[in-house]
Amino acid sequence: MDSPRFLTGQLLLAMPGIGDPRFERAVIAICAHDSNGALGVGVGAVIEGLGLHDVLDQFGIERGDAPNRPVHFGGPVETTRGFVIHSPDWGGQDTIDVAGRWKLTGTIDILRAIAEGKGPSEWLVALGYAGWAEGQLDGELARHGWFSTPGDLATLYDQTADRWADSFQQAGIDPRLLSPQAGTA
Predict the structure, then answer these.
(1) CA separation for the pair 164, 169 (Å, rounded)
(2) Where are the domains of the chain?
(3) CA proximity to 14, closest of 130, 158, 135, 144
(4) CB 155 within 8 A of CB 117
(5) Which residues of the chain carry a pLDDT beneath 50?
(6) Which InterPro entries has this protein been placed in (predicted)?
(7) Which of 122, 118, 116 is nearest to 62 (CA)?
(8) How many CA atoms lie within 13 Å of 141's alpha carbon, on the beta-carbon side?
(9) Largest CA distance in the chain
(10) How high is the pLDDT of residue 185?
(11) Architecture of the 11-177 domain
(12) Looking at residue 59, what is its pLDDT?
């Protein structure tokens, strides 16, 4: 049996016609993928009407000079749980290094650091995550569902980017030419 493709530190791009409206044009930063399953944080879609200032207010944290960036839809699992994907120049309580490409923090100390101007140089906030059981993501990758790419870190943190289209283009694929149907050979 082939060993699974471990994609920690990669971006997963939803293929057209993935079949789940929650993942249409999704871009998911894979933060853990091993033989036990996978965990990723969505970075492609934002939660309308919710910004960092709202999150800081909910925790009683002074906003300081923190920009009011949009909060991303991290995924359909535990949608009230927050995560910050950020550059490796900051680390705090329970910060996890993701394949040397970015870090993931899910504790309140990073929100305080960002508000105080002492946080990472690059960051984005998300609520929820996407999770896959053992072998589940590998099965989805074998079907017409996801495309994996290392992705460009500048695009990951760019607040104006269309991460889905830009990441396909960076991989040499024109997303307008992708078919929503899978073929067989």
Answers:
(1) 9
(2) 11-177
(3) 144
(4) no
(5) 1-4
(6) AlgH-like (IPR003774)
(7) 116
(8) 17
(9) 58
(10) 55
(11) 3-Layer(aba) Sandwich (3.40)
(12) 97
Q: How confident is the model over 60-75, as pLDDT tens digits?
A: 999 999 999 999 999 9
DSSP string, the chain: -PPPPP-TT-EEEEPTT-S-GGGTT-EEEEEEEETTEEEEEE-S-EEEEEEHHHHHHHTT---TT---PEEEE--SEEEEEEEEEE-TT---TT-EEETTTEEEE-STHHHHHHHTT-S-SSEEEEEEEEEE-TTHHHHHHHSTTEEEE---HHHHH-TT--HHHHHHHHTT--GGG--SS----
Residue with tokens 């996407």, as numbered in its chain: 130
SS3 state at 6: coil
Residue with tokens 């050979």: 185
Global pTM reads 0.91
* Joined tokens for residue 5: 């493709």
Structure tokens at 157: 């943190």
Would you give the DSSP letter of residue 3?
Answer: P
Q: How far apart are the first and last CA of the chain?
A: 21
